[in-house]
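Re: weekly structure request thread

Next one in the queue (625 aa):
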Amino acid sequence: MELLYVWVDDFRLFSNTGFCLASDLKIEESFEVHEEIDIVNLKITAIQNSINLFPDCFSNVHGLIGENGAGKSTLLHLLALLPKDLYQIASRSIFVYRDENNEIRTIYFGGGKDRKPLLAKITYQGELENGIVLHEPEPYEFKYNAALGWELIFKENPWDAVTSILFTNIFDPHPEYLYKNFINLSTNFLLFKSIDKFLENFNKVEFQQGNEINPYNPLPEYYNEELRNQIRFIAWAKNKKLKSIPLPDELDLVFYNPDFQYIKSNKSTYAAFRIDDLDRLNKKAIENTQLITNPKERFTSVLVFQLFFYALRVDCFRQDLNGMKDFDNLNKEIRRIASSDSNVLEEFENFFLERESNSANNVLGKIIQIVRGGIEQSLLKCTFESNPENLFRYSFKIDENLWDILHLILDVQYLGDQSLLNYRWRGISSGENAFINQFSRFYEIKDNISTPNLLILIDEGELYFHPAWQKGYVNSLVEYLPNLFPDNKIQLVISSHSPFVVSDLTSNNLTFLKRGGIPVKFDRKETFGSNIHTLFTNSFFLNGLIGDFATAKIDSAIKYLNNEGQLDFENNDDVQIFISNIGEPLIREQLQKMLDSKRLEKLEGNYNSLEKRVQDLEEKTKEDD
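Done, posted below.
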């Protein structure tokens, strides 16, 4: 199924507005107001010389461009709602779509009992071509079911065969949680989802036990989910040998011992601890670890002694069998380990295992799982390097086994306010990371699709990208989406502020919007393969391609050269320096001509002044004679 056209009577800033998403058809509406009923007449015209440049798995690729505040994001939200969630706005609306048999069908919501009725009519201008069949519009309505909520009532619901997916990386207060009937990959929604999961864990045993874990930071849960998605996606993409996105080969993990430093920096909070003993314990743990040459054993040892200090900070140990705080015994045990000649790392392991019976503490249970060999089994499947000079830094090869290690570590402390380790991709920028993050979200839902058709909506997907990555963005979508969804027909709608995206689409594949949600109806110049400077002016409604600050300075120079005021320049020399810094040759040359003329006028003025003085002297000399 391919969505061809949408008309909506009242949706946010849209009022009685239609949008054509087809690349081979032009669909225009006219509105008739009658006393008893309103009529929307739709006229379809075939576009001559239209071409589908995309692989057959795409039913269409369409771009939304225009001014800020023009409604590009609003239109994507409208498409995300579609009939299944339109009960939320209850607006009169019309949808035209092409089914799998190349037949054009129209369904519409006439407004229900509480609104003036609407009737939709549709005609085809000229002869029907290529076996096209045009059906008469059919109405649908909503009915409330106490068990199921609002239901779409229609004899054959076309959206039963479509899964809608929305991606946006824009972080704003938009209430994404309102949308129920599509896959939401927006940053807002995923963050809210992480908060919900965090609040669910907030009520677990460790909080009820009074442990001092900061309950006000849900972000680690969100970050960990994103990291997991990225690792799994990169491993998959490398296996597929996809190349349009630069993929890192390694992930750097760095332990930085935050909990020991936290305890030392907050002596008043941890006054019951003997800081000197903890300091000796930390130094001894580092010395013992430095003696280990096997990278996997070294990694395990670093992790265990980091977890020991973490457990101290979140109070995993200081409860006796009666649930009372028992600092004396804990401090005695710490002093014994710090003063003995035994291997401190083995002591740490025993310290954890002796408390295994305290299963009520979920954090301690997760740590014991690691100590009991969970991490060692995962390390056997991974490839990584360690720096002999830095026992806290490790570089892991990215494959499907890496998350088996990371989730064990991150699950221990994701409810806390600090992380046991930092991680970063080797050799990629923040923009490249945004690229990977976007596609990793699509990867995570690729096995959740149960319909033959996909409507993928992407709001400013190139946001944060360097121009070089904007240039390749559409190409990456065309490469990756069919590999992610090989069994689906894909309709892709993307909003953008990038001329590179526009240059990858024909004008028939674009909707231009002006501020206020107004589709621009004019004969558009061809955009595909067009020069980006031209696209900036024609497609984004820009008056000039020079920044406002530079424009104001140039205007100031022109006023000075026209003797309209001093403004930013005191003399000709200041203007000359300014002109030499202008990059646009035409402007630079024109200002230089104006300056040269001004200088010439000054020379002529000086010459005339000197000539007059000579004349005055000659006349005075004659008078004296």
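The chain is about 40% helix and 20% strand. The radius of gyration is 35 Å.
Next request, please.
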